[in-house]
Model the fold of this input.
Amino acid sequence: MTTFENLLETDLERRDDSWERDFLKAFPSARVKVLNPEPQVGPDHWPYLLTTTEAADDTAPSILTWLSTRGIGLVLNPQKPHPDYVLSYGMIWNFRERGEFLSLGATGEKPASNRFDIKPGQELMAGAPSEAFLPKYVRSVIRQFLADQGVFTPKVLMISADKVNYDLCFSIESLKSPPTHEHANIAEALSWFLPAHYTVALVSEKTVSGFVSL
Done:
């Protein structure tokens, strides 16, 4: 039987998808220690709590619950040449809500991209995101992030072209109408706050109506 300790001892070149699945399944039962009470900004410019498995005294779930309401990710064993794992904020709250860090989408596959194209005359399903899809504490975290960027009244809408796959769409106008070439980077930034199986898009209120306050 592979233990959590065995997984941490696995050479980097052998850490494949199977290793990742085993690691993420075992991590909630691990004990960790916070290295610094203040979140540190990572190379990707997002805040992370640095933790280690050495002389650990806290349970992973207790720390994950604390992080879930604060918009902070987690790095495990950053003192190594390569950290053992990095959890985005979206992975953390997905675990709190669904009991797993990575979930599959409605089709059983991870989304291919954040691109969302609406063709003229295309029939769409649209509605406000539910509490289950986007909990209040997550909305608060994203609102604060956007407020720090000078966006104070963000609007969102769930949109689907096939009634199976839904995109979380942000109103371009509510984001202060950024130029088109910035849309992909904005969607990518917002994706850090969301589970990996979510897709994010920026859509104009001139194209689709019904946006609601985040």
